[in-house]
Amino acid sequence: MGAGTEPDGSSRSDEEWERFLRESVAGAVDAPKEPSARARAVAKRLRSEPAAGPAGWRTYTPARPKRRTGWYVAGFLLSIVLLLVALAPERVLDLFAGGGSGSAPLAGETARPTQGPPSSSAQRPTRDEPFRGSPAESWASGAAGITVPQAAPVGRMSAAEVEQALGRSLDFLVTSNLDPGVLRGERPAKAIALINPHQKDVQDLLAHAFTSPGEKNDPLLLFSRFRPSHTQLVGDVVKTRGRLAYQEGEHGGLQVTADVTFVYPVTRAGGGGEDHEIERTIVRRELVLSWDDPDKVLTEAGTFSVVSYKYNMTNAGCGAPTGYLTPPFGTDRRATEPGTEMDPYDRSAPVTRSESSVDECGTATRS
After folding, report:
1. Quick one: DSSP state of residue 118?
2. What is the pTM assigned to this prediction?
């Protein structure tokens, strides 16, 4: 039997079969080659796609337009802004005006400004944002709003002694105008302890101010206090702006000048604290304190003498002194006779008043 058999039944010779085996091992020149992996992948994709018919001679396939994602995003953002304007226009105005409770505080005041602060957005205060719509919104809170200069030697006093006097002067401002108990009408014992007990005129004022206040014996000349039955503070933050300065005084003492504005958000006591009832009482004080030489002036260590005190107050009430700040609300506000108009936030001019007056009642141009 031959080595191979053709389809028609004829046999191959042994020589032909041997040549076939050699060529199969060595590989013939025109033998088919194994396709590459890329070719196999392309062939598989073509087999999976449906066969497309021949394109018509008038057939035109336009280029696929590119997606304009940027326009879609811009349109979406614009729609959000328009929705915010429709739902809360006041908040949007605050953002563009640079207001808002999250605004960064102004840098500390180091000298008297040359003009008042610019107008703020005309927004009413709320319980959550009691300083909204006023320049005080960007002021610092409490003692942080009062700039204390760097101490240096003055006269007989060393830099360390000047620093101590500046610190205690700041303590007086805090305990007389920011202490929560004093603001609720309590006696300012800590502040009084810093005043020279041998200064007769001031001690006479203090002896009568809290029991029988009058034009010359009004505790408001030195202290800020509200009657709890009439006024309630909104929140526990008082905004401040001002500075201390110092120079050598008489008899080798140290003279410290304080010029500070205090902004108190208030509402009617027991009135529920509705937003439309919230007002702001604004008090600006200018004090001159003398830290005297005990060898030349009768005084006690750690106390100062009051050289002078001046103040301006708005939304604080009018009429005979009662010993309390009495901001008007509702019908009381409408019944108040207009007085001298003043911008309570303008710190460019000096303070003018030095005593209580029944006839003088400042009217704030803004609060």
Report:
1. P
2. 0.72
